[in-house]
Design goal:
Layout (H helix, E strand, L loop, with lengths): L1 H4 L4 H8 L7 H10 L3 H13 L3 H13 L7 H13 L3 H13 L7 H13 L3 H13 L7 H13 L3 H13 L7 H13 L3 H13 L7 H13 L3 H10 L9 H7 L3 H12 L4 H13 L6 H13 L3 H12 L8 H12 L4 H13 L7 H13 L3 H55 L16
């Protein structure tokens, strides 16, 4: 229970305050802990810990490790975590493993660390599953075993431990204990990247940049490298330096918070900037409210896109057009979407031209015209729009398929004519042949019709 409660905000404190006044010594001790009255909490937890309550022992280990209510002492932390770990507490086993791993309060002992990591992992401790996988992969306190590393990394990845997803991705990318599988590696990197992990984003960038497991896309790879570098990835920073690419995203606190999925902080910073007439911040606020599920609010998105559109921002025009085009938080209005896309087209923005092309393609807000749509798709593709390139390729394939179909129909007609002529010939021969056989047959001899080779 105590681990689930750690780190909860004021709402949890209110819930604890609602407990009966005399709920019991343990509950009273927890109240003092969450009220940050650590000295009083220590006095209440200590007798419970000495009476072998494993949760209270965990608290005592935590107090000594952090120096809360007592003078910090890793030796005492080892003592209390050890008692709780031997009583089967998974969190204490994990904390004890870390102390042995780094040699805090005890002699560094990687074998002992692995023992307790494994004990915790076998009880389902999420973080411990990663450490066990890491130990097997790198021979930290245990004999190296890629097969076992894969097993534990997979468990940790299933628990959304980003380091495990990237570690597992590296094993698939490099064929460590498993057949190389670039596609699976890319998916694992993407999983970590989607959770806001810098390392996963950097490795995914490499996959796109060099076309491993995904379609080569140097532009997207560069963008991902920049994101990862802004988040502090040394690998990404090094790669950008190798490519001679400058990173203009470094140092932007709002963007870094966004990448790390700290949306509350990102919104706060962008709102402050937007209120000082920063157009980019307005668009970023619109985008975060439009696209991020955790904070999605189409009305707020529209509220921030509107002033940016008034100030002539092309990205806001396209995004606001999308809201009307796909009925996101507003009634569908193809005419308004068409108007906004056409405004953006004037700046030769490839994304605007692509969306403009879709209006002609579908006949939304304008009379349908596939020829104009294809011309616009080609223009957007020439300006770098990948979506437009995909549509041009689609139409090219479709037209090629149509040509193949027309030829097939023509061939079929020819085949049908040949078959009809053959049937007419064979029917005629059968009639003549059976008639001749009948005429020649006598009382003792029976003649039969033998069809010509082409009719057999």
């Amino acid at each position: 229970m105590k681990k689930l409660l750690l780190g909860l905000a004021a709402a949890s404190l209110c819930a604890l305050a609602a407990l009966p006044a005399f709920a019991g010594p343990y509950e009273d001790a927890e109240k003092k802990f969450y009220a940050k009255e650590y000295s009083k909490a220590v006095l209440l937890f200590r007798p419970l810990a000495e009476a072998d309550n494993d949760d209270a022992q965990w608290y005592m280990g935590t107090f000594y490790r952090r120096g809360q209510g007592v003078e910090q002492s890793y030796e005492q932390a080892v003592y209390w975590f050890d008692r709780s770990a031997r009583n089967g507490d998974a969190d204490s086993q994990y904390e004890l493993a870390k102390l042995y791993y780094y040699g805090d309060g005890t002699a560094q002992d990687r074998k002992m660390a692995f023992k307790w990591y494994l004990a915790a992992a076998e009880q389902g401790h999420k973080k411990a599953t990663f450490d066990v996988g890491y130990a097997y992969k790198n021979a930290k306190g245990v004999k190296k075993s890629y097969s076992k590393a894969l097993k534990w990394y997979q468990k940790a990845s299933d628990h959304n431990i980003d380091a495990a997803s990237t570690g597992l991705g590296l094993m698939y990318e490099n064929g460590l204990g498993v057949k190389k599988d670039f596609r699976k590696a890319a998916k694992l990197y993407a999983k970590a990247a989607d959770n806001g992990d810098a390392t996963g984003r950097a490795y995914l960038a490499s996959m796109y940049y060099f076309g491993k497991g995904v379609k080569t896309d140097k532009e997207k790879g560069t963008e991902l490298f920049k994101d990862a570098a802004a988040m502090g990835s040394k690998y990404a920073i090094s790669r950008l330096e190798d490519f001679g690419i400058e990173n203009d995203l470094l140092g932007d606190a709002a963007y870094i918070a966004y990448l790390k999925k700290d949306f509350k902080s990102a919104i706060k910073i962008w709102r402050d900037r937007a209120q000082r007439a920063d157009i980019t911040a307005m668009v970023n606020l619109g985008n975060i409210y439009k696209d991020v599920k955790e904070v999605q609010d189409y009305k707020k998105a529209m509220d921030w896109y509107k002033p940016a559109v008034t100030l002539g921002n092309v990205e806001a025009m396209i995004a606001m057009g999308d809201l009307y085009n796909y009925a996101l938080g507003v009634p569908r209005n193809y005419d308004e979407a068409y108007r906004l896309y056409s405004m953006a087209v004037n700046d030769n923005d490839p994304n605007a031209i692509y969306m403009f092309a879709t209006m002609y393609d579908d006949g939304h807000g304008v009379a349908q015209d596939k020829d104009i749509a294809l011309q616009l798709y080609q223009l957007a593709a020439d300006l770098g729009s990948q979506d437009a390139k995909d549509m041009v390729e689609f139409y090219r394939d479709r037209n090629a398929d149509k040509a193949r179909w027309d030829q097939m129909v023509a061939n079929l007609d020819s085949i049908r004519r040949e078959q009809a002529e053959k049937k007419r010939y064979c029917d005629e021969m059968f009639y003549k042949g059976t008639l001749e056989a009948s005429r020649r047959s006598g009382q003792y001899y029976k003649y039969s019709y033998v069809p010509p080779p082409k009719c057999r």
